[in-house]
Structures are given as C-alpha cells and as structure tokens.
Amino acid sequence: MGITCGSHFVQMGNIMLESLKLTTREFHKENTIVEVGGVRIGGDEPVIIAGPCAVESYEQMIKTALAARKAGAKLLRGGAYKPRTSPYDFQGLGKEGLRILSKVKKESGMPVVSEILEVADLPLFEDIDILQVGSRNMQNTALLKALGRQNKPVLLKNGVASSYEEWLAAAEYIMDEGNSNVILCERGIRTFETYTRNTLDIAAVPIMKKLSHLPIIVDPSHGTGWRDLVKPMALASLAAGADGIMLEMHCNPEEALSDGLQSLDISEFEELMSKIRR
Ligand code: PEP
Ligand code: MN
Prior knowledge:
Elements (H helix, E strand, L loop, with lengths): L1 E4 L3 E4 L2 E2 L17 E3 L2 E3 L5 E5 L6 H14 L3 E3 L17 H14 L3 E4 L14 E4 L7 H8 L5 E4 L6 H13 L5 E5 L17 H8 L4 E3 L1 H5 L2 H13 L4 E5 L17 H12 L1
Parallel strand pairs: 6-7, 6-13, 7-8, 8-9, 9-10, 10-11, 11-12, 12-13
Antiparallel strand pairs: 1-2, 2-3, 4-5
Helix pairs in contact: 1-2, 1-8, 3-4
The protein binds phosphoenolpyruvate (PEP) and manganese (II) ion.
C-alpha cells in the first residue's frame, strides 16, 4: 500500500502520509499501547468500556458501574456534557455529572471515560481518566490542540463524514502538541442507509491497524443505533482486530434520558461478555 514518489511524496492507498508523521506506521512501526489506571489499551487483551450514554444520577451510575465491572468491563463511560442533536434534548448534568463520575470511580475502582466539549472545561475534568472527543468535535482544532497540551489519554471518535486521512490528521493535531496517548474509536459513518442510525465501518479497524500504530476501538452503540445490533457488531469488531469496544449500557434502558434504544441492559451486557470470553 505504501508508494514513494520522489523524496518527499508518500502515498498509501489515497492517503497522503507526508503530513501524518506522528500517527502513521510509516514513521512509527510498533503498536502504541495506552495505559490508564493499570488497563492497557492496544495490548494483547481487548478492553471493554461500558456505561450509559449520559450520567443521570449517582444511583444509576453506581449500579451500572458495579454490574459492568462484575461482568468484566475494565473502564466506565458516561457523558456529563452531551452534544445532542436537538437543543431541547437532555444536555447532561454538567459539573454535577462529573462529581458523580468522580465518586463512582472512587467506589468502583474503575477508570472513567467522559466527553469534553469545550477547552474551557478542561480543569473540571481533573478526575476523568480518558477524555473523549466526540464525532461532532473531531475537527475542532482548538479542542484537539488543548488536549494535546495535557497528558491524559484522548479517545478520538471519527466524524460522521470524515475520511481516514482527516481522522488521522485530527489525531496528528493532538500528537503534534506532545500527547501521544491517543485511542481511535470507530463510531459509524453517515451513508444513504436510514434503517440504522449510522453505518458501522468495521473495515476501519484493519485499515487503521495498517495505516497507524494507534490503538483502535469500536463503538457499536452509536454505530448502529439499535440494541439488537450491538452484540453481533461488537463480536465482529473484535474478530476484525479491534483493541476494544465501547458500548452503552443502562440499568434501565427504557427510562434512559438519552440513547436508550441502543443501550444494553445489565443482563444483555453480561450475555455479550460471556460470548466475548468464549
Ligand atoms: C457518545 O459517546 O455518547 C456520543 C455522543 O458519541 P458520538 O460522538 O459518537 O455521537
Ligand atoms: Mn450516546
């Protein structure tokens, strides 16, 4: 896939590698392993990240965290700041949500992943272990640069209509500022199909493995939008070589304030985990 034309024009597929010096394998051969709270992402074991779309209450989070941990999840997710499509939808608990995450992290011992929307919020995320950049912010260069100037791992989702090259360029923004702890997360793309919420691009896994040394995980919840599709797509993603899965799980999906239709309940999550182990 790598073609060298002259001394400074390098192409792989249709990706220009010249300006992707930090993210591509061309310039950094070994796999990058991101370590957080004793968990290794990009190592031999796939890592499962589970939790609700949004932090709704302490009771919801502790119940979900303990069930997720018991079933084998290594990290807990939960959004305190939610970038919802409609301004009238639940926007997250904000600072209170982060306080809940911090308490649940202490009590469960699970490192937490949460989405950051604004550079100015960075000090509030002191207790958050992995900072998520959502699909809508993949090309927010001010945010990417700010996350590059601190050293917590960044989970970078692909934009709904971004190319692999643009996705890697976004990771390059973070790394260029000095932070090499970047985890890619495939979360589905926008296609002509309307049956599913997004089209999960599982090919992104082997493609990114080939192009980049960064770990890549898959989010089958946003990638499909439907609970029933999460299990098969999670298994397919791991079969394709993903370093992990991040999925939405809720102790009571019917009552979820966001993304209930794509959230597994506790027993569905346990079932998936036993399939993954097998
Ligand atoms: C999320 O993880 O809840 C989220 C908003 O994801 P995305 O950016 O992929 O839409
Ligand atoms: Mn969600």
